[in-house]
Amino acid sequence: VHTLVLHGAGQGHRQRQWPLRQTLARLGCASAAIDFSGHGASSAVHPNSLSKRLAEAQAALERCTVGPRTVVGVSMSGEIALRLACRPDNQITHVVTLVGAIYDGAAFALPFGLAFSTALRRPGSWREATVLEMISHYRGRITLVRASEDAVIPAEVAELVRQHATAADCRIIDLPGVDHRISERSQHDAALREQLARLIAGGSA
User: Fold this and answer.
1) β-sheet bridge partners, residue 170
2) Which residues of the chain carry a pLDDT beneath 50?
C-alpha cells in the first residue's frame, strides 16, 4: 500500500472514503485509512488536537504504507497531509488536499475546544500557518482540490499554498457545483469519485 487517506473533522470517519478507495483500487492504487481518535471506531482517551492528529497519521503512515507514498488529506487533514509531506523521511511524492484547511501555527498544539475555536475565528488566521514555510521545501507533487461552493474553506487557502510551494508540479483543481461536503458527495456521485481517484492516482482531471 502506497496511499494513505485521512478524513476530516466533525462527523468524519474513514468509512466515508471507502467508495473513493474502491475506485482507487480499480485504478490499481491500493490505499489505507484510519479513524482519528474519537471518530468512527476509535476512542479518545486524551484531548484531541492537530498535533495529536499529526502523530496518529504519522504512526499510520509508518505502519500501513511503504514509500514512495501519496497522502490525501480531507478538510482539516489538509494541514496534516501537508505536514507529513514536508518530512523527507516519509518519502511522500504526491500530496493531495480535498477542500483542505491550513491553520495558524499558534493553534496547532491547542486542544480542540474554546481556545482552539477562538484562534480559528481570528479573521485570516490561516495566513499565519506554519505549514506555508514548511511547504516551500517540499519537492514532490501537490494537488489542491477546491469546491466552488465551499462556504468553509476560503478559495485563497489553495492560492496561498501554491504561492509558497516551490514544487515543479503544484496544481489547483476546481470542482464546480460542489460544496465542502466532498466526502459525502463522492459517496453517491460516481463521476466525482472517478475524477478524484484519477487525480490521486496521478492522472488528469
Assistant:
1) 142
2) 204-205
The residue among 137, 142, 6 whose CA lies nearest residue 61 is 6
CATH number of the domain that residue 64 is part of = 3.40.50.1820
Domain total in the chain: 1
Q: Smallest Cα–Cα separation from 77: which of 34, 120, 115?
A: 34
pLDDT of residue 42: 58
**Which domain does 8 fall in, by range?**
3-201
Q: What is the DSSP letter of 68?
A: S
Contacts of 74 (CB under 8 A, 6+ apart): 5, 6, 7, 8, 12, 17, 97, 98, 99, 100, 182, 183
Look up the pTM and report it: 0.93
Identify the pLDDT of residue 16: 84
DSSP category for residue 148:
T
Residue 205 confidence (pLDDT): 42
* Rounded distance between C-alpha atoms, residue 157 and residue 147, angstroms: 12
